[in-house]
């Protein structure tokens, strides 16, 4: 009975402390057996260890016995190859991954090794594994770091990065385990969807994805589309409009809503713009062509801020990933907005391309029959992981209890009062010699704080989107005695902060002082981001502390809950607020922000789900055209005389390739046209709500009939091409018949939809109409 009560009490504590998490008892029960195997496998030679791991290849799925074996062999391989003996909690993480969970492991608890052992386990089941990372640096680092472990377990590993050629990519994907950034793997999927020869395929069919920083990839970036574009021409930015809009003033010529997602001209603003553009009527037939340019230029001017949303570096606009505080490589806004921002900054417009294909990160991961993940902050998004991916979270306890002191938020009436308190906090802690990590909201704030600290003789190292190439070195030294590091968001940095610096020489000195002190300059729009910053302190049982400073006038509050409750009073001298109502209000604002992001995710998925279904159907047809003689059969049936005429001048293989090239070209072109059509529909669909129609239903009503036209149109266009194709001594000149693929292609990510939801767009239209009638 006491044992039963103890087990029930343990489960109750888990339910309270780790809501929405999976039960670990089944895996914990295997730890003694793994421990018993340890002495046995230690006696094996390297060759015997590899041979024993190879015997697991006979198992299609891992039952308890196989989980025990792979964990015991993996622990020994890591001990020999890395001089690291995996802790029991790391093996729990490995088993959680091997059974398809998202495992939550705190910072510094060894997720990389746990993920590697799970990847090896899946590979030994005969499954191709992609370890999906948040950036290219981590993909290469982790693959090279874990390679000796994989070698001992008899599985092969490679990685993909932007510099690889097509042949090198094919070789990397041929390994049993391939590491790659989520964007790079996605771009390879898009490239494979445009090939015209089977031998040009880079990726085999996907089987298992193990996602590092799973909450960031599966939630924060889930709605981000990855795009393959083909050259068309340079984007045309309306410089005249940009110069006019630059002179407009908030409150007089235009207004914005509280959450910074909409901007619109006032009557006075419209008059100024119309006069400056030669007396046109923006809302009449004569000015309708300029209205779109004005709207997008106003969005760039009013809602996108340099050093917050983007930086200008090397003469280029580079977007900043809001959840990581660093440059979002290869990322851009939709072409019109990208060109408008470039015009705003007086930069030449970058090339514009037609979208050949695209895929969201969520759709990319949905291609894998099995998905697992690891992160330090999964419980907060457990419901989303279940809703969108049918994944359950397993919380892995730390190897050493966390002793970090999480201090209550310090709240102030104004940002200036808050900043003075932050400076005082940094000075007070710095005088003791404790290392300090300050997490800021954006590039501009990090640099402003650094300047203020320098003026009062408190030098610091800054890590933000401007110098993210040096991030590993900067973070590695952030635990040095006396160090002050100011950084934008810490998610996905991939490097632990070791007390005493990278070499640990001052470790004991820093430990005695209390370890790393983390300061947040404001609460983030997500509690997970708060947790990720706090988690940089208190690693593996180290001492440490964390505190967030906040203001009732922070952007989080103003955008999500601007109506502050009455009766909250601040200290007259410092502006500090100790009323618990202020803390509740800030917490509420954060929950509202999380709800908004969740609704954007849901809304995006509602629309892209239909597109992905259509793409899947068309890909089946494309694959049949690519791998069989279907194209030749179709064209011979539809145009037998012309087919026979061309057949006389070509050998059988060449004729099959010709027909295949024609039909694949028209399929890809029609899909590109369909995407453009759907984009136009999606951008205007909010107007349907004015007629009391459901935008999503209307989107489906328009999208489905258009899609059904594609396959008949492929055959129709292909027949016309075949009939018009010119026979030459060298064969058939398809280029002369218009069958020309883009001279160049490139890939990029479209930034999170910078525009608002359908409902908000509708309200914006209604407000604008009412204002014009009233004025």
From TrEMBL:
UniProt cross-references to Pfam families, sorted A to Z: P-loop_SecA (PF21090), SecA_DEAD (PF07517), SecA_PP_bind (PF01043), SecA_SW (PF07516)
Compartment list: Cell membrane; Cytoplasm; Membrane
Helicase ATP-binding domain residues: 92-250
Boundaries of every Helicase C-terminal domain copy: 414-604
Catalyzed reactions: ATP + H2O + cellular proteinSide 1 = ADP + phosphate + cellular proteinSide 2
Domain SecA family profile as annotated: residue spans: 9-581
Membrane-topology annotation of the record: Peripheral membrane protein
Classification via CDD domains: DEXDc_SecA (cd17928), SF2_C_secA (cd18803)
Binding site for ATP: 90, 108-112, 496
EC number, as in UniProt: 7.4.2.8
Annotated keywords: ATP-binding, Cell membrane, Cytoplasm, Membrane, Nucleotide-binding, Protein transport, Translocase, Translocation, Transport
SUPFAM superfamilies: Helical scaffold and wing domains of SecA, P-loop containing nucleoside triphosphate hydrolases, Pre-protein crosslinking domain of SecA
InterPro entries listed in its UniProt record: Helicase_ATP-bd (IPR014001), Helicase_C-like (IPR001650), P-loop_NTPase (IPR027417), SecA (IPR000185), SecA_Actinobact-type (IPR026389), SecA_CS (IPR020937), SecA_DEAD (IPR011115), SecA_motor_DEAD (IPR014018)
Hydrolase among keywords: no
Subunit relationships: Monomer and homodimer. Part of the essential Sec protein translocation apparatus which comprises SecA, SecYEG and auxiliary proteins SecDF. Other proteins may also be involved.
Family: Belongs to the SecA family.
Alphabetical list of HAMAP family matching this protein: SecA (MF_01382)
Function: Part of the Sec protein translocase complex. Interacts with the SecYEG preprotein conducting channel. Has a central role in coupling the hydrolysis of ATP to the transfer of proteins into and across the cell membrane, serving as an ATP-driven molecular motor driving the stepwise translocation of polypeptide chains across the membrane.
Protein name: Protein translocase subunit SecA
Gene that encodes it: secA
């Amino acid at each position: 009975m006491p044992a039963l009560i103890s087990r029930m009490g343990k489960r109750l504590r888990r339910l309270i402390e780790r809501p929405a998490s999976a039960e670990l008892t089944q895996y914990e029960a295997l730890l003694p057996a793994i421990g018993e195997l340890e002495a046995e496998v230690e006696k094996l030679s390297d060759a015997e260890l590899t041979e024993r791991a190879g015997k697991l290849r006979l198992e299609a799925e891992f039952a308890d016995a196989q989980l025990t074996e792979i964990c015991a062999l993996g622990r020994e391989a890591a001990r020999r190859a890395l001089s690291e003996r995996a802790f029991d909690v790391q093996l729990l993480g490995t088993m959680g991954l091997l059974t398809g969970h998202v495992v939550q492991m705190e910072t510094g608890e060894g997720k990389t090794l746990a993920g590697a052992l799970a990847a090896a386990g899946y590979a030994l089941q005969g499954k191709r594994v992609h370890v999906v990372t948040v950036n290219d640096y981590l993909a290469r680092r982790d693959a090279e770091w874990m390679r000796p472990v994989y070698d001992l377990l008899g599985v092969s590993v490679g990685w993909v990065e932007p510099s690889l050629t097509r042949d090198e990519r094919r070789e990397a994907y041929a390994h049993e385990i391939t590491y790659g950034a989520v964007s790079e793997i996605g771009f390879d999927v898009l490239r494979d969807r445009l090939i015209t020869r089977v031998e040009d395929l880079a990726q085999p069919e996907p089987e298992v994805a193990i996602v590092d920083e799973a909450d960031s990839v599966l939630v924060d970036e889930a709605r981000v589309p990855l795009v393959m574009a083909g050259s068309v021409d340079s984007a045309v930015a309306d410089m005249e409009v940009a110069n006019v809009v630059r002179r407009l003033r908030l409150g007089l010529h235009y207004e914005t809503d509280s959450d910074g997602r909409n901007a619109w001209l006032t009557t006075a603003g419209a008059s100024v713009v119309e006069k400056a553009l030669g007396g046109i009527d923006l809302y009449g037939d004569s000015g309708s062509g300029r209205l779109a340019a004005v709207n997008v230029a106003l969005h760039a001017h009013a809602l996108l801020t340099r050093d917050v949303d983007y930086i200008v570096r090397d003469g280029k606009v580079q977007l900043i990933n809001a959840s990581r505080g660093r440059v979002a490589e290869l990322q851009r806004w939709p072409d019109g907005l990208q060109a408008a921002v470039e015009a705003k900054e007086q930069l030449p417009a970058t090339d514009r391309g037609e979208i050949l294909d695209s895929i969201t990160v969520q759709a990319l991961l949905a291609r894998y029959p099995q998905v697992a993940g690891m992160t330090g902050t999964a419980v907060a998004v457990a419901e989303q992981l279940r809703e969108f991916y049918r994944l359950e979270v397993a919380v892995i306890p730390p190897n050493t209890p966390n002793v970090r002191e999480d201090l209550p938020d310090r709240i102030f009436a104004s940002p200036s009062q808050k900043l003075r308190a932050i400076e005082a906090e940094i000075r007070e802690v710095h005088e003791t010699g404790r290392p300090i990590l300050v997490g800021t909201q954006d590039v501009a704030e990090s640099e402003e704080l650094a300047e203020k600290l320098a003026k009062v003789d408190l030098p610091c190292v800054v890590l933000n989107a401007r110098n993210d190439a040096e991030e590993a070195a900067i973070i590695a030294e952030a635990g040095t005695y006396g160090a002050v590091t100011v950084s934008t968001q810490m998610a996905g940095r991939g490097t632990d902060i070791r007390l005493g610096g990278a070499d640990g020489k001052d470790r004991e000195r820093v430990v005695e002082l209390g370890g790393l002190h983390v300061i947040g300059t404001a609460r983030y729009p997500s509690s997970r981001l708060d947790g990720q910053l706090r988690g940089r302190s208190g690693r593996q049982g180290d001492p440490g502390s964390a505190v967030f400073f906040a203001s009732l006038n922070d952007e989080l509050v103003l955008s999500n809950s601007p109506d502050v409750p009455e009766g909250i009073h601040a200290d007259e001298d410092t502006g500090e607020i100790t009323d618990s109502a202020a803390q509740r209000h800030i917490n509420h604002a954060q929950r509202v922000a999380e709800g908004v992001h969740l609704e954007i995710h849901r809304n995006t998925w509602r629309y892209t789900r239909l597109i992905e279904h259509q793409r899947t159907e068309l890909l089946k047809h494309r694959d049949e055209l690519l791998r069989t003689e279907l194209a030749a059969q179709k064209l011979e049936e539809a145009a037998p005389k012309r087919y026979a005429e061309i057949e006389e001048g070509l050998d059988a293989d060449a004729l099959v390739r010709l027909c295949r090239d024609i039909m694949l070209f028209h399929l890809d072109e029609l899909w590109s046209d369909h995407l453009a059509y759907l984009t136009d529909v999606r951008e205007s669909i909010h107007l349907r709500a004015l007629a009391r129609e459901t935008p999503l239903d209307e989107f489906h009503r328009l999208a489905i009939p258009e899609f059904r036209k594609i396959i008949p149109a492929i055959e129709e266009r292909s027949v016309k091409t075949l009939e018009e194709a010119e026979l030459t001594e060298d064969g058939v000149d398809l280029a002369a018949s218009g069958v020309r693929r883009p001279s160049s292609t490139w890939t990029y990510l479209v930034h999170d939809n910078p525009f608002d939801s359908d409902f908000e767009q509708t309200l914006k239209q209604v407000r604008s109409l009412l204002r014009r009638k009233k004025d």
